[in-house]
Fold:
Amino acid sequence: MISEEKFNDKATKFALLKNLEGEFFTLDEYKEKVEVNQKDKHDKVVYLYTTSPKEHHSYIESAKAYGYDILEFDNIIDNHFMQHLEYK
Structure:
């Protein structure tokens, strides 16, 4: 998915993201979930994520206080996947 453009086009329909509550979403489902509440000053959707929920606990609680949802990317491949999504 990360290096093959054709596979990426297909995989974005079934790739799953996991939030800190343990819920799973496709990319489109997650965008629908957060697009109302998580936008920057340029009206672009902002995706918050953590690679270490225990280490980032205070930041996570602050974000949750604003009603934000946070994704959990705690595997080695997740960092590469997130960079890929940011590039897209």
Observations:
- The chain has one domain: 5-87.
- Residues 76-87 form the longest helix (12 residues).
